[in-house]
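User: Quick sanity check before I run a bigger batch. Here is a single chain. Can you write out its predicted 3D structure?
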Amino acid sequence: MDPLTRISRTVWQLPFPTGHVYLIALPDDGFALVDTGVPGSAPAVLDALARLGGRPDRLRQIVLTHCHVDHMGSAADLAEATGAEVLAGAPDAPYVRGTAAEPAPVLTAAERRLHESVMADFAAAGVPPLRHLAVDRELHDGDTLDGWPEPVRVLAVPGHTPGGIALHLPASGLLFPGDVIGASPDGDRAVLGPFNVSREQAEASFRRLAALDDVGTVCVAHGGPIRENARAVLAAATPEKDWR
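Assistant: Done. Predicted structure follows.
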């Protein structure tokens, strides 16, 4: 049984070896999901939902921060099992649907070594092939999400992918940055996420998120959640030096 880590009164992290996902309890007794893990992760997500008291049909929304396989990998299976609405950033929607080829990242030498290691791990684990799926709602910078416990701002954070998004909940200080921001295992150091299609844009997106006033916890997909001194941790980061 995969562990669940409670982040706040309404948010839980379900950690995976690659690409954590987050479950959010909604006021109508439903749930939202931020990202879905690699292909084959749906049973673990549904098990976590059940442990929180949710039947599959209570998963209302699947929000994809971007189109990479460790984030959208189980979205098709979960959408079929639950009937949840699928949301993604508008520029990434064609890649999620499979109507356009996902752009390749521009890799540094350090990133190339890491990428090869991740792909080898996927192969060794027998990760199933990616399934594409429909996007029910395309999100843009400045949009808001309905039905959550508090207002949710959608922020466009291009660079990692063309249509990456972050979710900011100012009232509770939560930030879901997608892969623009990664963290050390204990969450005391923030780094620029690797494998970017435009490093310059990714660094600018990192700085945009780091400048937000109302951030107390950063719910990263890779590494440990940044839960202590989040603004100071982000301010101390040097994304321009990462993965060089």
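The chain has a mean pLDDT of 97.

User: Great, the batch can go ahead then.
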